[in-house]
Amino acid sequence: MLALGVLHGLDKTHLKLAANLTTTCYEMYRRAATGLTADIVSMNIDLHVGTDIFIPVISAAGNS
Question: Is pLDDT of 59 > 80?
Answer without folding.
Answer: no
